[in-house]
Here is the input.
Amino acid sequence: MNHNFQKDINAGLSASNKTLSSKYFYDKIGDALFVEIMNMPEYYLTKAELDIFKNQNKELINALKLDKTTFFELVELGAGDGTKTKQLLKALDDLNYDFRYAPIDISDNALKQLKTSINKELPKVQTEPKQGDYFDVLGSLKTAEHPIVVLFLGSNIGNLPDARAKEFIQKLDKNLKIGDKVVLGVDLIKPKSVVLPAYNDAQGITKRFNLNLLARINKELDANFDIETFEHQPEYNEDEGIARSFLVSTKDQTVTINSLEKTFTFKKGEKIHMETSRKYNDQILNGILQGSALKITGRLTDSKDLFADYILMKI
Ligand SMILES: C[S@@+](CC[C@H](N)C(=O)[O-])C[C@H]1O[C@@H](n2cnc3c(N)ncnc32)[C@H](O)[C@@H]1O
Here is the structure.
């Protein structure tokens, strides 16, 4: 893990357009900051998807066409704190479905907290967390003989550029059996006036979340980023439906990463791309699914039509 972190940070900061992967936001501090982000008034995504999981969990279960007499596995990719998922777990448990919950996350800390909270709140739910990058863990789904339902919520897929999202769907498709399902949570295309504040909150929590990755590099790779000299700059391109977050160097400077024995130069105004958040509609999703055997069989939206959970089935 540390080796991958080091390798990816080196590659990202050596590129002509500097970039850092948003999957590295989530250390212990990053996990806690993301919980704060989910509670911000501007961050409509979690509230909208929670509305679906709280108020339409029976419709969701019906749409998944699960058989009460057959054991199945609920695999969640990038589970985080599982707030929304717990609504579904509770409903499945109350209805006596026979299942196991397998949350997968790159953050060991997030998984430990999730397991503790499920054991306490839903003691009958069997939980088997797995730490790792979900791209790497997908291969292990192939060996399962029981039905699988994959949860990929929170518009996590939106963090992947379209080509990578397509690659992800192809890999997921290859590793699922006919009849397996996916619940894919996506943020819907909407105006800039709604989207941009979600990545640029008044309290500056998103700014701290982004800067924490520089602090993480300082700590884990023995680097000397001067955090105060980088500004947070989110952008939303309404035509594309893509939000992007950048950190911008406020001066000409060099940063040394001792574990890489390397120095990186930043010009005043130079950007580091930190995160992509693609917004979806049916057409964009169908483009991503094209060429796979995953087909849309259902779609649930929140009461304000901000967010959608698509049900996909491998046919
Ligand atoms: C934006 S949060 C969303 C959490 C949850 N899905 C939700 O909807 O509330 C993203 C989560 O995915 C995890 N994550 C991000 N990239 C990942 C990757 N490549 N592999 C595994 N987990 C990843 C992070 O650690 C974090 O817990």
Notes: The chain has a mean pLDDT of 97. The first strand starts at residue 72 and ends at 77. The pocket of S-adenosylmethionine is lined by residues 23, 26, 34, 46, 78-80, 105-107, 110, 133-134, 153-154, 156 (CB under 6 Å).
